[in-house]
Amino acid sequence: MQSPIKPESPEVIAKIYRLYREYFDQAERRRRWNVREDIPWDQCNPELDPAIADVVQTFCTVELYLPDYVSKLMPQVRGNHGRAWMIANWGYEESKHSMVFGDWLLRSGHRTEEQMADLDTDTFSKEWDLPHDNGVAMICYTTVQELATWLHYRNLREIVVRHGDPALAKVLSLVATDERAHYDFFMKVVRIYLEHDRPGTLEQLRRVINEFKMPATHMLIDGKRRVQAVQDMRIFDYDIFYTDVFEPVIRALGVTKAELRRRKSPREIMVVGASS
């Protein structure tokens, strides 16, 4: 059973809630989109390389673990208004991502209704759990993961544009824009934690970087094959992670590699939001 979460300071909670309101207002004005109306569904390409459809199925499956993501993350941040409301909003946006990927697989003819039903059944037969039981570690993890996810979608879109599928290209463009907005928000939250407790937050960031894996891919029946397909297409691999995720993240946070290598003793680490 997870330990109680230490209360956060009113100042930190207030700052994060202000960030969330800014995020929400901007999303309402500029970024909301409609699954049925904003995709040129009549331009799906049934002749698209099946390997691309396999990768889209992987993305769809990972998004289907949304009930676990939200239900496991929410208890960590229940007392933090901005973070809790962001998880609710994030869950809404991610639910659209799973729907739109699933709709493309069906409308393009790359998957049947029966295959998609089997996918749901298999996915929901397993349960995802948090990679970290610490609220600050999880915001660091989510920051890294959202930037990595954005890169997956951006890089796949470049391949899709070359092969020709305007519907999938539009799907990936809209979803990638959402993921980038998520990353920007979570990045700003990590900066707040760094300002409030730099040594403790650095310790959690170090853990995340050293142990990072994309969520849920290991839970797929053919997870290794699907991860390999992503690497073979140069959508995402270790080199991309290092140059396009790790380095930009620490640069945006104002953290040096030397700081990440420097370990603090347990007595020096007091993380707000950590499990006690």
Layout of secondary structure:
Layout (H helix, E strand, L loop, with lengths): L9 H22 L18 H14 L2 H12 L3 H27 L5 H12 L10 H29 L2 H31 L1 H14 L11 H10 L5 H16 L3 H5 L15
Helix pairs in contact: 1-4, 1-7, 2-4, 3-4, 4-7, 6-7, 6-8, 6-10, 7-8
Quaternary assembly: single chain
Q: Helicity level, as a percent range?
A: 55-70%
What's the total number of strands? 0
Helix segment count? Answer: 11
Folded structure, characterized:
This protein has helices spanning 10-31, 50-63, 66-77, 81-107, 113-124, 135-163, 166-196, 198-211, 223-232, 238-253, 257-261. By secondary structure, it is mostly helical. The N and C termini lie close together (12 Å). The longest helix has 31 residues, at 166-196. Helices cover 70% and strands 0% of the residues. The protein is built from 11 helices and no strands. It has one domain (10-268): Ribonucleotide Reductase, subunit A (Orthogonal Bundle), CATH 1.10.620. Mean pLDDT is 88; it is low at 1-5 and 264-276.
